[in-house]
Write a structure and sequence with these properties.
It is elongated and about 65 Å long. Helix content is about 15%, strand content about 65%. It has two domains: about 35 residues; about 220 residues, Lipocalin (Beta Barrel), CATH 2.40.128. By secondary structure, it is mostly beta strands. Strands 1, 2, 3, 4, 5, 6, 7, 8, 9, 10, 11 and 12 form a twelve-stranded antiparallel β-sheet that branches. The protein is built from two helices and twelve strands, in the order H-E-E-E-H-E-E-E-E-E-E-E-E-E.
């Protein structure tokens, strides 16, 4: 009887130890899955700009290809942040570029020089439906200083404008695993809706490589189209420009 009781106690203790061990092992795994994760990046973008810029009575078509962006680039700062939990995430993207480029007048009778100092802040929240797919909603603030100088055979004119606006947007984002270390990231959003731009859209496609637990590299392409118009007469301003180009990112996860 005593031997049977001792065997029962040993079995009970072994079962309790196994259960405790399972809890100890499972808790860090669950905590790791539910832990809030932060990723901060800096990136370079060889942006091309094309479209129509109108300031007062001056209107010009601009086309700055990616191959010449560094010739026309005076200064740039580009960075982004993502914080994510199991079911939600927050994102912020900061872009500052000081660019210059040349174009032609709307009549084709003169040449134009365009200077654009652009500051964009993109803030969004996400509902993570799964690890691979999420829905986005947020807002994009744009501050733009533009100078247009039009030179014709008869004279030269210039106009300057300082404008800012806010665009709400909605979109979606997907993270598609290709291997343990590689991931395809796709994002798209549309917005404006007459609040700021008449219409604006943005899309990003990039390949992310998780070099280590901390370091991540990204290579991709980004498009941002903005159709903004305000004022009339001498106060008229239009910025109907598509900015696009390849990007290279380096970030840390903590």
């Amino acid at each position: 009887m005593t031997r049977a009781c001792d065997a029962g106690r040993r079995a009970l203790l072994a079962g309790a130890a196994a259960a405790l061990l399972a809890v100890i092992v499972a808790r860090p795994a669950a905590a790791q899955e539910d832990a809030f994760r932060n990723t901060a990046e800096i990136y370079l973008m060889a942006a091309s700009m094309s479209g129509t810029v109108g300031v007062g009575s001056l209107e010009t078509e601009i086309d700055v290809p990616s191959s010449k962006v560094f010739e026309n680039l005076k200064f740039a700062v580009l960075a982004d942040y993502r914080g994510e939990a199991r079911t939600w995430a927050v994102m912020a993207d900061f872009v500052y570029m000081n660019l210059g480029g040349s174009g032609t007048s709307s009549t084709g009778l003169g040449s134009a020089e365009v200077g654009a100092e652009e500051f964009i802040v993109d803030l969004a929240g996400a509902w993570r439906i799964s690890k691979s797919f999420e829905l986005l909603a947020g807002g994009r603030y744009t501050h733009l200083r533009t100078t247009v100088t039009l030179t014709t055979p008869l004279n030269a004119r210039d106009a300057k404008v300082d404008e800012d606006w806010f665009d709400p947007f909605v979109g979606a984002q997907a993270f598609l695993p290709l291997s343990k270390a590689l991931q395809l990231q796709l994002r798209g959003d549309v917005g404006g809706f007459g609040v700021g731009c008449k219409f604006t859209w943005q899309a990003t496609a990039r390949l992310n490589w998780q070099v280590s637990r901390v370091v991540q590299l990204g290579l991709g392409y980004r498009w941002l189209d903005q159709d903004f118009e305000t004022g009339s007469g001498t106060d008229y301003f239009r910025w109907n420009v598509l900015t696009q180009g390849p990007l290279l990112a380096a970030g840390i996860t903590f």
